[in-house]
């Protein structure tokens, strides 16, 4: 019994040290109506914002922008791959467009990491030639809690119809000790979000 308690304490401490998450889901009551119409959706490049107080002073704005652009595209491709992997054992109700095609279509319409937040969801879906779009937002910060550094990532994964209507949102906040890499935490969030992807659910009967 003593050994079991010790093992539990060690495991609990390990989990708390690694990360702590809070998540919630919001879904429009008529999501099933749109799910039935959606044949193809696109994952848009990830939008990343960092708390200005958490930004190292010895890094220029241009360098930060470049890092975030590379990170955005990496996470977009990672989320695409994770979605395919998580849902490999069952047919999703909508096909997820290859992110390389998505980015090529966006580039063709002069949309990039630096201006994508200013483009309407309706236009993004139109440019990508899809029925809906999946958007990911990350807000990263680093605070001192109880005299120890703590990394925090607030995230949102949202699905919009091609007419710009918000259909579904997944919120997640993850905390971890300051020595945990932010990219590692972002990947955890995306892996969780892929498992919650509503297109993997059976289409509900639409009630009149």
Topology:
Layout: H1 2-18, E1 20-27, H2 31-37, E2 40-43, E3 47-50, H3 61-86, E4 95-96, H4 99-108, H5 121-128, E5 132-145, E6 148-161, E7 166-177, H6 182-196
Parallel strand pairs: 2-4, 2-5, 3-5
Antiparallel strand pairs: 1-7, 5-6, 6-7
Features:
208 residues, alpha/beta, Rossmann fold, globular
Describe the protein in words.
The chain has 208 residues and is an alpha/beta fold. It has a single domain, classed as 3-Layer(aba) Sandwich (Rossmann fold), CATH 3.40.50. It contains six helices and seven strands; from the N terminus they run H-E-H-E-E-H-E-H-H-E-E-E-H. The chain has helices spanning 2-18, 31-37, 61-86, 99-108, 121-128, 182-196, and strands at residues 20-27, 40-43, 47-50, 95-96, 132-145, 148-161, 166-177. Strands 1, 2, 3, 4, 5, 6 and 7 form a seven-stranded mixed beta sheet that branches. Helix 3 (61-86) runs parallel beside helix 6. The chain is globular, with a radius of gyration of 19 Å.
Q: How many helices?
A: 6
Q: What percent of residues adopt helix (DSSP H or I)?
A: 25-40%
How many domains? The number is 1
Name the poorly predicted regions.
1-18
Radius of gyration: 19 Å
Q: Classify the beta-strand content into a percent band.
A: 25-35%
N-to-C terminal Cα separation, in Å?
58 Å
Which structural category fits the helices and strands?
alpha/beta
Top CATH class: Alpha Beta
User: Given the C-alpha coordinates, what overall shape results?
Assistant: globular
Order of helices and strands: HEHEEHEHHEEEH
Number of strands: 7
Largest sheet composition: 7 strands, mixed
Q: Looking at CATH, which topology would you report?
A: Rossmann fold
Average of per-residue pLDDT values: 84
The appropriate CATH architecture is 3-Layer(aba) Sandwich
At the fourth CATH level, what is the homologous superfamily? ABC-type transport auxiliary lipoprotein component
């Amino acid at each position: 019994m003593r050994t079991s308690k010790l093992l539990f304490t060690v495991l609990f401490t390990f989990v708390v040290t690694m990360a702590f998450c809070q998540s919630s889901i919001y879904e429009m009551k008529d999501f099933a109506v749109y799910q039935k119409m959606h044949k193809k959706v696109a994952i848009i490049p990830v939008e990343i914002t960092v708390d200005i107080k958490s930004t190292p002073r010895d890094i220029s704005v241009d360098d930060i922008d470049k890092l975030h652009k590379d990170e955005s595209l990496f996470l977009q491709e990672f989320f695409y791959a994770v979605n395919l992997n998580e849902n490999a054992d069952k047919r999703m109700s909508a096909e997820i467009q290859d992110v390389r095609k998505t980015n090529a279509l966006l580039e063709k319409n002069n949309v990039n990491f630096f201006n994508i937040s200013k483009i309407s969801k309706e236009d993004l879906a139109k440019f990508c030639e899809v029925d809906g779009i999946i958007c990911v937002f990350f807000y990263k910060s680093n605070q001192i809690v109880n005299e120890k550094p703590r990394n925090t990532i607030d995230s949102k994964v949202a699905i919009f119809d091609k007419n710009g209507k918000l259909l579904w949102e997944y919120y997640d906040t993850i905390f971890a000790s300051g020595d945990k890499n932010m990219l590692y935490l972002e990947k955890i969030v995306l892996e969780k979000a892929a498992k919650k992807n509503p297109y993997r659910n059976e289409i509900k009967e639409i009630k009149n």
